[in-house]
Amino acid sequence: MKSLKTNQNTETFPMNQFNKDIIAALSSDKDITLNEVLRRQIEVAANQFLQNELTAVLGYEPHTRIDRSKDDVNYRNGTYTRTIDTKYGEINLTIPRDRLNKFQNALFPPYMRRN
């Protein structure tokens, strides 16, 4: 009887920038802390979520040509910044706006300053 060789998967976990930052924070004498790494990651994820949420409300991606002949067409209308104090530190948010003021983000209620 032939012996069956087992195929051992030697792939390692893919290293993205977040993983590299965590390893650097835990293994070095740098001034960066694990809280700072988490704060940065939360900030990036929250800002990306807000952009994706506005895209869902508008129904089209940024820089996409749309039919402007309709009266109810809504457009992106810049951004404003907010700072939210979390247990990981302050995160700076770039909140997108729309022309018809229909966008109300679900993640951060108006006037929220602490979480």
Automatic annotation (TrEMBL):
GO terms for biological process: DNA transposition. Required for the transposition of the insertion element. It comes from Ligilactobacillus salivarius str. Ren. Keywords: DNA recombination, DNA-binding, Plasmid, Transposable element, Transposition. This is Mutator family transposase. PANTHER family: TRANSPOSASE FOR INSERTION SEQUENCE ELEMENT IS1081 (PTHR33217:SF7). Belongs to the transposase mutator family. GO terms for molecular function: DNA binding; transposase activity. Pfam families: Transposase_mut. The keyword DNA-binding applies.
